[in-house]
């Protein structure tokens, strides 16, 4: 049995240690928000957080997640109220939507490290592929989410 902390809950999984984390999440736990895209860590559809760092779950063995905190799109917020999720809705980012959970997870990690990214910062950090080409809407939503997060932080301090 492999013990994993996923979205704040402990899970005992009867899987092989070299099974990709993606398949443990999707097939074993039924957390299907994390998508399979390419299987070679290139597209980013399978992006999750491992100890707050974005990783491509298709290339991470479950054994590498032991003792670490895994967060999937389902764990980003309970009801879709994370600033990035809200910006995605407000700016109508998705077309087909397939890559969007991975995009959102990558952006949430970026904004945690860099609350006010420049376009160059976004280009360097967000390497997820969108076959529909919604990159301009992604950029707009990232800037909107950054502004919303800063406004919320300012309101908390007041």
The main β sheet shows up as: 5 strands, mixed
Strand portion: 5-15%
Number of helices: 6
Mean pLDDT over all positions: 95
Distance between the termini: 48 Å
Determine the structural class based on helices, strands and strand pairing.
alpha+beta
The strand order across the widest sheet is 2-1-5-3-4
Q: Which shape, going by the Cα principal axes?
A: globular
Order of helices and strands: EEHEEEHHHHH
Helix content: 40-55%
**Stretches where pLDDT falls below 50 for ≥5 residues?**
none
Indicate the radius of gyration in whole angstroms.
16 Å
Short characterization:
The protein is of the alpha+beta class and 158 residues long.
Write up this protein.
This protein is α+β, with helices and mostly antiparallel strands and 158 residues long. It has helices at residues 21-28, 73-76, 83-90, 100-113, 119-125, 135-157; strands spanning 2-6, 9-13, 47-50, 53-56, 69-71. A 5-stranded mixed sheet has the order 2-1-5-3-4, sandwiched between helices. A hairpin with a 2-residue loop joins strand 3 (47-50) and strand 4. The longest helix is centred in the last third of the chain and has 23 residues, at 135-157.
């Amino acid at each position: 049995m492999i013990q994993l902390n996923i979205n704040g809950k402990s899970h005992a999984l009867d899987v092989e240690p070299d099974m990709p984390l993606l398949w443990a999440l999707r097939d074993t736990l039924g957390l299907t928000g994390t998508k399979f895209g390419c299987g070679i860590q290139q597209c980013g559809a399978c992006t999750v957080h491992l100890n707050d760092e974005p990783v491509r779950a298709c290339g991470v063995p479950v054994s590498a997640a032991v003792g670490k905190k895994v967060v999937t799109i389902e764990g980003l917020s309970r009801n879709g109220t994370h600033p990035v999720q809200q910006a995605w809705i407000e700016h109508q980012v998705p077309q087909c939507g397939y890559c969007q959970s991975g995009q959102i997870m990558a952006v949430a990690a970026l904004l945690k490290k860099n609350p006010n990214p420049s376009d160059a910062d976004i280009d360097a950090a967000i390497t997820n592929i969108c076959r529909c080409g919604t990159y301009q809407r992604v950029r707009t939503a990232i800037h909107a989410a950054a502004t919303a997060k800063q406004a919320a932080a300012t309101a908390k301090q007041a």
